Amino acid sequence: MRIAILASGNGSNFEAIAQAVKEKKIAAEIVLLFSDHRDAYVLKRGEKFAISCESFELKEFPNKKKYETALLELLNQYRVDLVVLAGYMRIIGKELLAAYPKRIINIHPALLPDFPGLHGIKDAYEAGVSETGVTIHYVDSGVDTGPIIAQKKVSIEKNDHLADLETKIHQLEHQLYPEILAKIVNEQ
Ligand code: GRF
Fold it and tell me: Which residues form the active site (predicted)?
């Protein structure tokens, strides 16, 4: 199976997945790493793994539709079977969703449907809940709304600072995303 990873920034989830592929824990090949930010740190991580990296930005196109068409062309060019979002901070457009039905996956740092959006960790922390977690889900046209594939909980202790919670969530993400991708790939 040929995987593309889409990421906008740091790329720690990309790295966890790339490492698992390298160790043959996921029976797939990462054929493409795409970032919508030309200076994203994830691209440096991609080079380290000798994965093909491509990047262009929305602002380089007259509109979002043209940007998405270019992205779809890129995915076609690399003959991508499965699209994995790892900190990709954009809503996926209609054309892309139609081209990859149940073939686009995302990770979110909260227990959806609770705390969707950009600040899942902070929002859960500030709400004072005693547990939160990580969700992996299929992508649809909403923000963090598609069918859920897997969830895992993390408890928030009384003396946890936000930074403690962030660390716990990211550790869980780096374990859960490769594990679930391995299963998805095996089920194809
Ligand atoms: C992760 O917390 C992920 O759940 C969210 O964005 C963050 C990306 O982190 N969608 P990184 O770029 O993988 O380090």
Answer: 108
* CATH hierarchy code of domain 2-187: 3.40.50.170
Q: Which residue has the least CA distance to atom 1 on ligand 1?
A: 87
Burial string for 128-162 (b: 16+ CB within 10 Å, else e) reads: eeeebbbbbbbbbeeebebeebeebebebeeeeee
What ipTM was estimated for this complex? 0.98
In the predicted model, is pLDDT for residue 39 greater than 90? yes
Distance (angstroms) between ligand 1 centre and the Cα of 9 equals 8
Pocket of ligand 1, beta carbon within 6 A = 7, 9-14, 86-87, 107-109, 173
> Coil, strand, or helix at residue 45?
helix
Please, which residues have CB within 8 angstroms of residue 154's CB and are 6 or more apart in sequence? 131, 132, 133, 134, 165, 168, 169, 172
For residues 42 and 86, what is the distance between their CA atoms, to the nearest angstrom? 10
> Where are any strands of DSSP class E within 27-172?
29-35, 53-55, 82-85, 104-108, 131-138, 148-155
Tokens standing for 183? 């299963």
